[in-house]
Amino acid sequence: MDYKVEISALLSKLTGIESAEIHRLMEIPPQPEMGDYAFPCFTLSKQLRKSPVAIAVELASDPTLNVDYVDSVRAQGPYVNFFIDKGHLSKAVISEIILKGEQYAASDIGQGKTVIVEFSSPNIAKPFHVGHAFTTVLGHSLSRIYEKLGYNVVRVNHLGDYGTQFGKLITAYRLWGEESALEASPIDELLRIYVLFHENEKDDPELTQTARDNFRRLEAGNPEEKALWQRFRDLSLKAFAQVYNRMGVAFDSYKGESDYSDHIPSVISFLEEKDLLVDSEGARVVMLDEYKLPPCLVVKSDGTTIYASRDLAAAMYRHEHYNFHKNIYVVGLPQSLHFQQVFAVLDKAGLDYAKDCEHVGFGLVKFKNMKFSTREGNIVVLEDLLNESIAKTLEIIKTNAALRQSDMTEEEILEIANKVGIGSVIYTYLKSGRERDIVFSWEEMLDFDGDSAPYLIYTYARTRSILRKAIEQGIRSADAFDDSLSLLTTEEEFALVKLLSDLPEAIEKAASSNEPFMLSRQVSRIARAFNRFYNNSSILGGADDHLRSARLALCEAVCTAIKTGTYLLGIDVVERM
Asked: Which of 90, 186, 465, 545 has the smallest number of Cβ neighbours within 10 A?
């Protein structure tokens, strides 16, 4: 039951204002003692020619608001504050969660609409570092969130597999490449020769020209250059797949920059038909003065294409093939200007779907007192970070298991360490607003009492443990239709139930703002509230049978909510720790 919707409908009857408008104006008071919902009366003042305070008193005393799910209505200054009946809320929320199970918080608001999420998009032939992980984690979570809301989601890995750097790589491989090293460790070998190219380029300008020539031949479809490029691409994808599999990430499309090379002539023809292309020192650009943006370079002076031309082609292709509702680019904040230019060109060309293209930017990755034995100098390779996180988690879990004299096997402990270790990395990217820089700290990441994945996963495992003990003791959990659920009215119980009821809204907010942080914060709050309830309530002992059954049902609801939330973040839970 959505109390906000129900109360809005009641107020609509009394005031004549559209229910949707009242719903928009309704507020959540900052303090529990001020109620659960508050309606500001300022907008009615002019219409009724009364002060907001007088209107609030009049509305609060109207018998229409005396319904079974409202405990009391109070006028507090210019606000009408509603206090929901605690027992009614507890039964309604927990019943819904038990009945819906994993479908709790699901929605059909995206029914029939396609959302494209472009994320990860690493450059082939280069290591998958922690910066790539930000876009990967963020895009993976957003994809699951949109799916939860009923959207058809297309996950696109727009590989960086084209451009002048591949002319350099082809040149470098012909000069210094070692076949055995390429087979054994392709990314390491390709990076080695790429670095070697730049070192030698400083003293040999002819290398630069050779690289340009090789890229032109690649764009022209020359078989030799294309075969080398294809091999580099295939080997890179094989290496990337190992990382994606570890993190549970998958894609529907690997159409990278190279896939749009053949579309470039039609894009250029289209822009010419619109009379948008202007010659500029041999290059061709679209002027964007009216958008207060610098010109968008489409074709370079040597006739080759650039990121913008390929992104224009990609946007046009996606609209033609998917008719998208949203076309989301999960790319770092430094690329903001680039996407502003691309979207402006689409808009200037009269393509109305330009407004449906969104750049979802994110901050930088930093480290606090962390040392890595990385393979790539100053590049922190993601696999190194994951391995280190798993190793440290394994050490913690083994220590705790020994102290508790746990019967967990080595295999089970390792599986838990993998999930918690990888989850710790993922949560670090998503626990704050995406535009803030990420600061990795082992102490914070692996703090089982802090704002961390281990805390969420441990809370879930603790709750599952309670439910297992109840089964062993033959104690029944209340079902969805049990009136005993209305007994959950203590301060801790009610606070927890309210947070559970807010999970669907948190998911919708996460999608509308493209901020998984909205969801991670809510799941963290639920975990905190559960542990307060756990520490202040007797769940299996002491309470009478009806209250005990209701509290077990609350535990089941918490498990469902935490598992739902962590799944949407891309984190796996464990049944015990």
From this structure: 545
Read off the tokens for 517: 């942080």
Secondary structure class of 367 (helix, strand, coil): strand
Catalytic residue among 88, 91, 129, 319: 129
Give helix 453-472 / helix 545-569 axis angle, nearest 10°. 150
Q: What is the mean pLDDT of residues 38-53?
A: 89
Picking from 253, 226, 241, 251, the residue whose alpha carbon sits closest to that of residue 314 is 253
Domains of the chain, residue spans? 3-84, 114-261+315-360, 383-569
DSSP assignment string, 71-108: EEEEEETTEEEEEE-HHHHHHHHHHHHHHHGGGTT---
Architecture of domain 383-569: Orthogonal Bundle (1.10)
Q: Dihedral of CA 52/58/63/66: which sign?
A: positive
Residue 10, classified by CB atoms within 10 Å of its CB into exposed (0-12), middle (13-18) or buried (19+), is: buried
Measured between its terminal Cα atoms, the distance across the chain in Å is 35
Q: Annotated catalytic, 546?
A: no
Q: Are 539 and 555 in contact (CB under 8 A)?
A: yes
- Residue 448 has what pLDDT? 93
| Assigned CATH topology for domain 114-261+315-360 | Rossmann fold (3.40.50)
**Active-site choice (4, 88, 91, 132):** 132
Distance CA(394)–CA(413), nearest Å, equals: 7
Is residue 129 annotated as part of the catalytic site, yes or no? Answer: yes
**Is 132 an active-site residue?**
yes
From CA 409, how far away is CA 106, in angstroms rounded? 36
| 64 alpha carbon, distance to own chain's centre | 42
Q: What is the pLDDT of residues 432-480, one digit of tens each?
A: 999 999 888 999 999 999 999 999 999 999 999 999 999 999 999 999 9
Q: Which CATH superfamily is domain 3-84 in?
A: Arginyl tRNA synthetase N-terminal domain (3.30.1360.70)
Distance (Å, whole) CA 471 – CA 476: 7
Catalytic hit among 4, 86, 126, 431: 126
